[in-house]
């Protein structure tokens, strides 16, 4: 039986959330923790496509929200010694990864977001969330730029759509660096095993990282399994991965595709071509999720010399300018 299309407020593991339902799909967003979309499900088949927080242990989610659901990162990934050169200034970010001496993941993934509105009609169920960065905001304390980030999530017959908007409200050019630390559940089907799954990602070249997980400027040859990753697909746990790749769209699309070879079901994560880099992390082959992370900029991009800013995604927004990118998660059912 098809459930009613609706959007409503109800708790997720005790934390206030906005729930969306449309046909067989269901999703939940937690505004107070980074506007993290912590669940995307097919309720008819019992599929759970994202790594969801354990409802009985939400403290684990609160302690590490970046490894569940779809967290937004800005500025994403690592910055050497916390240094962030921009427009002739050098800003200092806090060192929050002592093991490497770097700053990691920015200031939005655990911030409280405002719910602008939610609703439902015969075409979709949606929620709009915003983050206004200005004086007094944690982000502004270290990177003093004023801007508004808006996330719109919607469920429709086409699956889950994510729309990211960034508007520069200030008087100077600002850095526009974003990523999503998307945690995909493996398996997503309740009767399947992780060994039933293969993943394909539109990666290009693999960047060499040093002992501080920062790019050296060199590329490394792809292994045979990495060639399979960009080709016919391979287990997302073929090796321990915390790897940095260029994105190389195929057939005009920049995406991850996860296939359950037992059922024939596929999950597609089409991220859009503004994300010129992928990070792929599988929690040291932990076995129940992996993170294909679309990222606009090269890790540590502001500190990289000699490569055009456009190539490494070190891009900015002029005053009043608006950036927009749409991504989508959707299933493909097996051919009968």
TrEMBL record:
<dbReference type="GO" id="GO:0016853">
    <property type="term" value="F:isomerase activity"/>
</dbReference>
<dbReference type="GO" id="GO:0030246">
    <property type="term" value="F:carbohydrate binding"/>
</dbReference>
<dbReference type="InterPro" id="IPR008183">
    <property type="entry name" value="Aldose_1/G6P_1-epimerase"/>
</dbReference>
<dbReference type="Pfam" id="PF01263">
    <property type="entry name" value="Aldose_epim"/>
</dbReference>
<dbReference type="InterPro" id="IPR014718">
    <property type="entry name" value="GH-type_carb-bd"/>
</dbReference>
<dbReference type="InterPro" id="IPR011013">
    <property type="entry name" value="Gal_mutarotase_sf_dom"/>
</dbReference>
<dbReference type="GO" id="GO:0005975">
    <property type="term" value="P:carbohydrate metabolic process"/>
</dbReference>
<protein>
    <submittedName>
        <fullName>Aldose epimerase</fullName>
    </submittedName>
</protein>
């Amino acid at each position: 039986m098809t459930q009613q299309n609706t959007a409503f407020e109800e708790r997720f593991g005790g934390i206030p959330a906005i729930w969306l339902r449309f046909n067989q799909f269901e999703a939940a967003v937690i505004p107070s923790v980074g506007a993290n979309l912590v669940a995307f499900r097919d309720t008819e088949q019992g599929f759970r496509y994202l790594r969801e927080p354990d409802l009985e242990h939400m403290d684990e989610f609160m302690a590490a929200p970046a490894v569940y659901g779809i967290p937004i990162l800005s500025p994403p990934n690592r910055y050497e010694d916390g240094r962030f050169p921009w427009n002739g200034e050098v800003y200092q970010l806090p060192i929050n990864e002592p093991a490497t001496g770097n700053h990691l993941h920015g200031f939005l993934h655990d911030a409280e977001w405002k719910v602008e509105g939610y609703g439902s009609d015969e075409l979709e169920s949606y929620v709009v969330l915003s983050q206004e960065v200005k004086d007094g905001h944690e982000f502004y304390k270290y990177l003093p730029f004023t801007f508004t980030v808006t996330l719109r999530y919607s469920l429709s017959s086409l699956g889950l759509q994510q729309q990211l908007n960034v508007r520069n409200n200030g008087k100077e050019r600002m850095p526009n660096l974003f990523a999503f630390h998307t945690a995909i559940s493996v398996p997503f089907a309740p009767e399947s095993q992780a060994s039933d799954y293969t993943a394909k990602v539109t990666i290009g070249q693999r960047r060499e990282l040093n002992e501080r997980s920062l790019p050296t400027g060199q590329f490394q040859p792809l292994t045979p399994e990495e060639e399979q990753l960009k080709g016919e697909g391979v287990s997302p746990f073929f090796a321990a991965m915390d790897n940095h790749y260029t994105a190389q769209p195929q057939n005009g699309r920049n995406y991850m595709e996860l296939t359950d070879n037992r059922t024939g079901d596929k999950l597609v994560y089409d991220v859009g071509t503004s994300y010129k880099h992928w990070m792929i992390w599988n929690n040291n082959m932990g076995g129940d999720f992996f993170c294909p992370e679309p990222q606009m900029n090269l890790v540590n991009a502001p500190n990289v010399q000699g490569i055009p800013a456009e190539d490494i995604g070190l891009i900015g927004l002029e005053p009043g300018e608006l950036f927009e990118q749409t991504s989508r998660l959707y299933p493909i059912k097996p051919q009968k």
